[in-house]
Amino acid sequence: MEISFRDLITVLHGMGFGALFMLAFSGAIGVIYATAAAGADSPIARQSKTMFRFYLISMATLAWLAVLSGAYIIYPWYRAVVPSGVTDLSGYPRALLLSSPRTAGWHELGMEWKEHIAWFTPIAMTMVAYVFIKYGPQLALHRQMRNAVLGFTAVAFFATAVAGGFGAFLNKYAPVRGGHEIILFRQD
Amino acid sequence: MSNPIRLQNGPGAAAILSAGIGAGALGVFALAADAFSVVRQALVIWPPSGPLSGVTTAAIVVWLVTWAGLSRLWATREVNLARVNLAAFALLILGLLLTFPPFMDLLQGK
């Protein structure tokens, strides 16, 4: 059982960083809402503060890792220019998609939206983590701030869902493959 | 239990508004790179990633510089958070629209 190096990095980008962020989303909403609802002088809020801070910082870190690995490691493989004379486009996902009108939309809508919208997530989640660390249980006293934080978190979820969804489909129609093969399991 | 001292909302408002400005800037840079070849070329700061490298880096710089500036300005102030939220979400929606390829094409008459 083998996997190519590029496949492995793509899995890490999508499943390791992106999907983990998506899984953590509902927890983030709960953390923010529960902290604000508990009130500024609640002992529960004080005890949970450290764990909640770690949770939101981890989410922001996952979001940054997802976009940075996507834009600076995987995207260059995806958009590699086809050398003259090459007719097998399987190693050139962008060119492969654009080579047929039946798949061109996956690049023109899917990748072109994905490559930009994904960046809303780390910006939003960094702000959310900062506001939570700064105010914590005091968000109960700043209702509008709490609403803004929840709103930005929801937009971050939407952006990640769009980027992740298109990423999964793009990888079905034109997978990013190549690099040395890594043997995961050897059958006798 | 004693009532905690209520923190000023200025630092939080600065973070929220600058995130909205960063999101709006991302949309504007993405549209500019799509519409104008001279901008597209100028934004190629790391060739393997093409203009995406410049679009996102420029938006992050705008976001962080704005955040630093507003944080200094509003460090000890109480600001009108309703207006800040309105502006931040308007910019966020603008950014989302400007990165949506069919909307980009519509603006360019494609």
Could you explain how this protein is built, in words?
The complex is a heterodimer of chains A (188) and B (110). The longest helix of chain A has 36 residues. In chain A, helix 2 runs antiparallel to helix 5 and helix 4 packs antiparallel against helix 6. In chain A, strands 1-2 form a two-stranded antiparallel ribbon. Chain A is built from 6 helices and 2 strands. Chain A has one domain. Chain A is mainly α. The model of chain A has no long low-confidence stretch (mean pLDDT 92). In chain B, 73% of the residues lie in helices and 0% in strands. Chain B contains 5 helices and no strands. In chain B, helix 1 packs parallel to helix 4. Chain B starts with 9 loop residues before the first helix and ends with a helix. Among the domains of chain B are: 31 residues; 30 residues. Chain B is elongated and about 55 Å long. With 110 residues, chain B is mostly helical. The mean pLDDT of chain B is 95. At the A-B interface, helix 2, helix 4, helix 5 and helix 6 of A face helix 1, helix 3 and helix 4 of B.
Keywords for this structure?
heterodimer; A: 188 residues; mainly alpha; two-stranded antiparallel sheet; 6 helices; B: 110 residues; 5 helices
